[in-house]
User: Which sequence fits this backbone?
């Protein structure tokens, strides 16, 4: 029996492009592993204050539990 395809949500904002490269590499690595039900990691690159971004990511991630 074929296992259904699983999805992973990756959200990022990149003005300089560095974070975009990192996000794409994370997606490529996650595609090789089983990730359902596993803890997640958040990475934020902010010049001043990334608390707002972290708060929103946690709110969104909580809806996937």
Assistant:
């Amino acid at each position: 029996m074929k296992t259904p395809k699983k999805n992973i949500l990756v959200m990022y904002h990149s003005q300089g492009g560095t974070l975009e490269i990192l996000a794409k590499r994370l997606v490529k690595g996650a595609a090789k592993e089983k990730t359902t039900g596993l803890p997640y990691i958040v990475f934020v690159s902010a010049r001043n204050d990334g608390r707002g971004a972290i708060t929103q990511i946690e709110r969104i991630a909580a809806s996937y539990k």
